[in-house]
Design a protein that fits this description.
mainly alpha, single chain, Protein Yjbj, Chain: A
Length: 65
Amino acid sequence: MNWDQVEGNWKIMKGKAKEKWGDLTDDDLDRIEGNRDQLEGQIQSRYGKSKDEAKKEVDSWLDGA
């Protein structure tokens, strides 16, 4: 799956994101609105990950979506 598909189906994908990153709140996911940079930033903030770690997690999540 590519990021354009995620953005286009964000209402569905945010539930999957919530399953993967349970510490992200519904408000976080609503603000992200399918923006990859914001998702990576929230993962960094909530989980104390580096930018590269967050990017790799999102890439892995996309491969499984």
